[in-house]
Automatic annotation (TrEMBL):
Xref: PROSITE patterns: VOC (PS51819)
Protein name: VOC family protein
Pfam families attached to this UniProt entry: Glyoxalase
InterPro entries from the UniProt entry: Anthracycline_SecMetBiosynth, Glyas_Bleomycin-R_OHBP_Dase, Glyas_Fos-R_dOase_dom, VOC_core
SUPFAM superfamilies cross-referenced by the UniProt entry: Glyoxalase/Bleomycin resistance protein/Dihydroxybiphenyl dioxygenase
Native source species: Streptomyces tibetensis
VOC domain span: 22-136, 150-265
Length: 267
């Protein structure tokens, strides 16, 4: 686990462009965006402003005026899961989409322009997990990291790590760092030697009704307080708090069922 890269330029408050392959944005498509905005606004302190409308009504979440994530209305003709979707940066989304197809993945949306913000595609890997590709123009992606209310990590839960890790390595240029263990199937994906995402192979323990899927971790100041707040807001705790090498973690879902995780960094 690590903080998102490319959130700001060195010695500057000016946002920097995310390196190719880096997780650069997370977006959630739901049936009821107004209620979803209310939920996450209360949980993370987000405010909202309109974003590109190419896929329907869409807003960007802001934390202290800086862009964090996106929430949109699920188009009735798009069969996408209600789930937080990570976007990975690309210098050429059309070329990346072609690589996805050539390596056994699929492209379900795009590539298409999102007004002057950039160009996007939404695809799935060979196991079926959905992810996005973002070619930045005016909108660089998430511009703040390392504080409560921001994405802290993205982790793919899938059947096994080796094959799907090869797919992401080929598409986005990641390096791989497997965990050497007989009973723990995990690969960290690295850019420039720094971990930026993870792949956790669960085998038959993967929830049958979900299939392979990405999970976004959001940083919080106090995970117990956040869980209490989440409960009052109508969210659901899926896996109680547990300690990891990277902090205290709880797996939860919002009122529409979108799964995510809360991460309290070690003090």
């Amino acid at each position: 686990m690590t903080d998102a890269r490319g959130s700001a330029g060195p010695n500057s408050d000016t946002p920097a462009r995310h390196a190719p392959g880096a997780p650069c944005w997370v977006s959630l498509m739901v049936h009821g965006p107004d209620a979803t905005e209310e939920f996450y606004g209360a949980l993370f302190g987000w405010e909202f402003q309109p974003g590109p409308q190419q896929l329907g009504p869409y807003v960007r979440a802001l934390l202290d005026g800086r862009e964090v994530a996106g929430i949109g209305r699920l188009p009735p003709d798009r069969h996408l899961p209600i789930a937080w979707t990570p976007y990975f940066a690309s210098q050429d989304v059309d070329l990346t989409a072609e690589t996805v197809r050539s390596r056994g993945g699929t492209i379900g949306v795009g590539p298409l322009d999102a007004a002057d913000a950039g160009r996007l595609a939404i695809g799935s890997d060979p196991s079926g997990a959905v992810f996005g590709i973002w070619q930045a123009a005016a909108h660089l992606g998430t511009t703040v990291a390392g504080v409560p209310g921001t994405p802290a990590w993205n982790e793919l839960l899938t059947f096994e790590s080796a094959g799907v890790a090869k797919f992401y390595r080929t598409v986005f240029g990641f390096e791989e760092e497997p965990v050497v263990s007989a009973d723990f199937d995990y690969v960290s994906l690295l850019l420039g030697g720094e971990p930026v995402a993870g792949i956790h192979g669960l085998g038959h323990a993967l929830p049958r009704g979900l299939g392979p899927h990405w999970v976004t971790y959001f940083q919080v100041a106090d995970v117990d307080d956040a869980l209490d707040h989440l409960d009052h807001l109508g969210g659901q705790v899926l896996k109680t708090v547990h300690d990891t090498a990277h902090g205290r973690v709880a797996h939860v879902a919002d009122p529409e069922g979108a799964r995510f995780a809360l991460l309290q960094r070690p003090s």
